[in-house]
Amino acid sequence: MPDVSASGVAASARANFANAASATNAAIDNAASATGAGLQSAGRKLQEWSATSNGASHTQASSANSAADANSTSSTSGTRTEYDK
């Protein structure tokens, strides 16, 4: 027959709580580890992409700015330029 005294029930509850806490802690550790590995991988890929795409994006941005400057009309009368729109 199981112990049904208050102290027996409390001891069983503490043991169950400790086991649940341990399992939860292990699950959190695993999730954090997987998340960290995923973030690390994503960071490496982003750095690689940035290193290979850096020159192209600066060239495109420079071309876009030059085109916007060429198409804009500046006026001292308060008219907005194409660049300002």
Provide keyphrases for this structure.
mainly alpha; single chain; 85 residues
In short:
This protein is mainly alpha-helical.
Element string (H = helix, E = strand):
H
Beta-strand residue fraction:
under 5%
Question: What's the rounded overall pLDDT mean?
Answer: 78
Overall structural class, as computed from helix and strand content, comes to: mainly alpha
- Main beta-sheet strand count, sense and barrel state: none
Approximately how much helix is present in the residues? over 70%
Integer-rounded radius of gyration: 32 Å
Q: What would you call the shape? A: rod-shaped
Number of helices: 1
N- to C-terminal distance:
83 Å
Which residues form runs of ≥5 with pLDDT under 50? none
**Total beta-strand segments:** 0
Walk me through the topology:
Elements: H1 6-71
